[in-house]
Amino acid sequence: MSKMDKKRMKYAAKPGLMAALDIGSSKIACLIAQPFEDGTIEVVGVGHQVSKGMRSGNIVDMTALELGVSATIEAAEQLAKENVRDVVLCTAGGAPESKLIAFDVAIAGHEIGDGDLRRALDPTWLYARQNEDRRIIQTLPVGFSINGTPVRDPRRLYGEKLGVNMHVITQASSAVRNLESCAARCQLDIESHVVAPYAAGLATLVEDEKNLGCICIDMGGGTTSIAVFKEGEVIYTAVIPLGGNHVTNDIARGLSTPVSHAERMKTLYGGCFVTGSDSHETIKVPLIGEDDSEENQVPRATLADIIRSRIDEIFEMIAQNIKDSGVDPNIGRVVLTGGASQLAGVRRCAADILARQVRRGRPAALRGLPEAATGPSFSAAVGLLHYALAERQQTSFTSLYSKEMPSSRFGRIGQWLRDNI
Ligand SMILES: Nc1ncnc2c1ncn2[C@@H]1O[C@H](COP(=O)(O)OP(=O)(O)OP(=O)(O)O)[C@@H](O)[C@H]1O
Ligand SMILES: [Mg+2]
Predict the structure, then answer these.
(1) pLDDT digits (tens, 9 = 90+) for 396-421
(2) Would the CB of 339 count as within 6 Å of ligand 1?
(3) Residue of 7, 176, 180, 362 with fewest CB within 10 Å of its CB?
């Protein structure tokens, strides 16, 4: 028995606990929460670690990733004094893709009940159309109609024809397989798999934003990902494989300084713009490969130029992605979250390029959440707990069918949507 196995068997697994695991390119985070009957939850365990095996959302070193995941889970378990087995997982990796599909189901004029809806939403037929290199990770109903008239919830209504709009999210099969294997080696079962920006949106958006329309942008280390919400549901997600770490590398390369120093400069003095008084200021930059006494004096404006060009590139890619997606171009405001959203001036860059109102978002308060986990880096991890709670309380449509569906047990999924769905 490995050291890890012994430790993880110290506590009895307690039914009912929820565990969220966010495997990012910069950090791995785990939150364990206790749900209560009144619908509230309390965070009872937190773990986070620097992520070593993931780059831009792709696993590049399985051994390092496994060590990171098991250490993160163990740290959270020790605080919770409980073991966990099932986790709700998110990553921004595996090149997730969103598709909206529409289909009708005949209901023969009776009152629509839970059973009808469960049958209508059963995605088995979609799984049968997968192809080998993509796997469905989520099927989310995003709109219903009865006899062609849109309805919010079709239950208890009468009609002949129930129309369903379904948001289908897929990931590269190899990425999903790697995550499954990593989880299995850490003695974890993946209860649900959520794309990171969707989870980040659940933690940061207020109800009005989700209902009226809003784009959540999760600015991570290796990725920048987006989730578009409308009428309370997520209707589109996408991931761009560029993030805050690319900004750091640009600084290191541009100023010939070590990456660790570039990261420090970015968080201490970095920003997308310089204001009048700062523009003449210079910063001392140690040179790579030189001893400590060798330094360059670099104008703050030069640092800002390096940062700005990468941040502009990221928002331009997002603008293009949204344009190509067919999402309503008038969709509401933008909420920026994720560790890299803390960079000074990103809000202004986003507002200029995306031509929308922009605010910064961090996870909404949650009982027991320690100060260290209230920053924007933790949005996705906190959002996973909201997701898990909605599933447990069956307040989401997905909870009607997800328990029996293969989406929660990847092993049973075979192929991906073939005929152009
Ligand atoms: N104060 C700060 N100012 C600017 N950038 C920051 C600050 N703090 C953290 N960052 C940047 O945030 C990034 C990490 O963000 P986050 O923790 O959300 O990433 P992640 O979830 O691990 O990665 P990903 O979502 O891409 O897989 C790093 O690039 C880091 O440099
Ligand atoms: Mg992240």
Answers:
(1) 676 666 544 443 333 222 223 333 33
(2) yes
(3) 7
Whole-angstrom distance, CA of residue 241 vs CA of residue 111:
47
**Closest C-alpha to 217, from 197, 245, 246:** 197
pLDDT tens digit string along 121-139?
Answer: 888 888 877 778 999 999 9
Under the banding of pLDDT at 50, 70 and 90, the label for residue 14 is low
CA of 377 to the centre of ligand 1 (A): 6
Least confident among 157-161, 285-289, 296-300? 285-289
Choosing from 21, 25, 26 the residue with most ligand 1 atoms within 8 A of its CB, the one to mutate for a pocket test is 26
Instruction: Dihedral sign for Cα 210, 392, 171, 125, please.
Output: negative
The finding on whether 197 has its CB within 6 A of some atom of ligand 1 is no
Half-sphere exposure of 89 (CA within 13 A, CB side): 26
Give the distance (Å) from ligand 2 centre to CA of residue 230.
22
Dist. CA 313 → ligand 1 center (Å):
17
Question: Mean of the per-residue pLDDT values for the chain?
Answer: 88
Domain range summary for the chain, segments of one domain joined by +: 3-94+175-197, 97-170, 207-363
Sign of the alpha-carbon dihedral angle for 120, 121, 124, 127 = positive
Which CATH architecture does the domain made up of 3-94+175-197 adopt?
2-Layer Sandwich (3.30)
Nearest CA to 227 out of 253, 195, 192 is that of 195
**β-strands 334-337, 97-106: how paired?**
unpaired
Q: Is 266 in the pocket of ligand 1 (CB under 6 A)?
A: yes
Q: How many helices (H) and strands (E) does the chain have?
A: 12, 18
Whether 343 lines ligand 1, by a CB cut-off of 6 Å, is yes
Looking from the CA of residue 379, the nearest atom of ligand 1 is: 18
Q: Which ligand is nearest to the CA of 239?
A: 1
Question: What does the pLDDT read at residue 248?
Answer: 98
CA-nearest residue, atom 8 of ligand 1: 339
Handedness of CA 115, 117, 123, 126 (dihedral sign): positive
Nearest CA to ligand 1 atom 4: 343
207-363 has which CATH code?
A: 3.30.420.40
User: Which CATH code, of 3.30.1490.110, 1.10.3720.10, 1.10.260.40, 1.10.10.60, is assigned to 97-170?
Assistant: 3.30.1490.110
The answer to whether domain 97-170 and domain 207-363 are alike in fold is no
